[in-house]
């Protein structure tokens, strides 16, 4: 069995490729390297450098490598920036998914695991999000992910696509030091880069309606997340039916200020964060239940927040900017 991983040269995608290798499944990676890194893809994994908008090239890659299923991560993933760049976000995430589904149909590939986002929920009016919680995204990014789920649903009705979407929020840590988060917008690299550079990390907004005024999120270790994608793909390949969406949540949120405290403890660098304005598109709190994913995918959070921070710090130290 061979799985095509779009965005497989990125931080999350490369961890998923690694997890497939450990599970004994072959991968092919498609990535335009706009935010990914060629060195993140193992030498023995076929790599196609192109945008998913290039439907013809993606179709050819699927046919040439005998692809049986797709894990779709490629896209523009920055919620806050998407508010300033809505057209780019829709082009990459909506038109890109349309082009990918067209390529799958042309290549007769009918199984896909879609990397969605907890951003589809916006700011929920419940303490614990479930798959039945209303979807009210507050950024073009969140909207584009919800549209991606709709596209899969409609493709299933039209030509029998077998699919599931995994919704999650803050993915952190590293399974191995060679694979690490280089995003200019994600919390962990922002904080760790600041400490390495001798700057003070910053909190964006302390006036949210949360216990300490800072955003509360589900933080998920990237290795746990990667394993869930592999299980979902294997179940689809085995002909099993899955729910259309699953939350990969911890059920227990952590605030940005609490993350800062954990970072200080893991790094041994004592600091008091600077306070800045809120970022547009950032909801106050998203904490999700992972019970449905536990039932069907064996989802588990096997890493503590402290382990998430330590692994991210080790990777950052091993790869100075």
TrEMBL record:
Gene Ontology terms for molecular function: UDP-glucose 4-epimerase activity
InterPro entries for the chain: Epimerase_deHydtase (IPR001509), NAD(P)-bd_dom_sf (IPR036291), UDP_G4E (IPR005886)
Keyword annotations from UniProtKB, A to Z: Carbohydrate metabolism, Isomerase, NAD
The NAD-dependent epimerase/dehydratase domain, residue ranges: 3-249
NCBIfam families, A to Z: galE
Record field: catalytic activity: UDP-alpha-D-glucose = UDP-alpha-D-galactose
Protein known as: UDP-glucose 4-epimerase
Protein family according to the UniProt entry: Belongs to the NAD(P)-dependent epimerase/dehydratase family.
CC cofactor: NAD(+)
Encoding gene per record: galE
